Amino acid sequence: QSMDSTLHYIHNDSDLSTNSSFSPEEERKSKVQDVVPQALLDQYLSMTDPSRAQTVDTEIAKHCAYSLPGVALTLGRQNWHCLKDTYETLASDMQWKVRRTLAFSIHELAVILGDQLTAGDLVPVFNGFLKDLDEVRIGVLKHLHDFLKLLHVDKRREYLYQLQEFLVTDNSRNWRFRAELAEQLILLLDLYSARDIYDYLRPIAFRLCADKVSSVRWISYKLVSEMVKKLYMASTPTFVVDLMNELVEKFCRCHKWSGRQTFVFICQTISEDDCLPMDQFA
Hints:
- Helix content is 71%, strand content 0%.
- The protein is mostly helical.
- Mean pLDDT is 87; it is low at 1-21.
């Protein structure tokens, strides 16, 4: 029952129906491989046993999570079935430190498993981490580009709607979270079309440019300049023209001095990075 509830946390009911028909014998066979001694693997898999955590070491699940990508690499993607249940158990562990450890390494595991297994087994876990505590979400955020670039284009576009959720944190003073978001958005510009950048990433970039913390704003100026560069090189020129008009309207003509200062800094970054030809800039 506890295993079922764990799986239900990550997968929906349709995913569960394929696993619940396993007999204990089939369950045991599914964890057999020939890469390392089976006793060694069984010992590792038993680390997620709650009684072991209580009697041996409360940190044992965290150590298990930390080692999992290495174990997956050793066994190879053909033996992922041996680790799948353990991974899902760890991904729903009560200790946030365990989930945080997995969140920081999920992009590495995706490389090991390949796109098919990633889409089926890692994406649901990834989606769960996106809604987790900030301590867990930061692990996903720091490697957002690394993970999304491994997904199919259609699957990747689904996350455009969720990017703005990173602007909301448990603690509003957690400015490093927003700074990391700006850094990741710069990298994400290469993964999305001009239309997607204009529709989804532009509003987030503008909000970050008006952040209360200067460190966040400075990274955001770079983000906007890279956005201008990307949109200028796109086949549809209207996006970059509309973006520049909005920069003038929103910041250059802002009634607050800080908004007008932001406009000057963005112009400085655009000219220094040669994002536009000078006649277009003028």
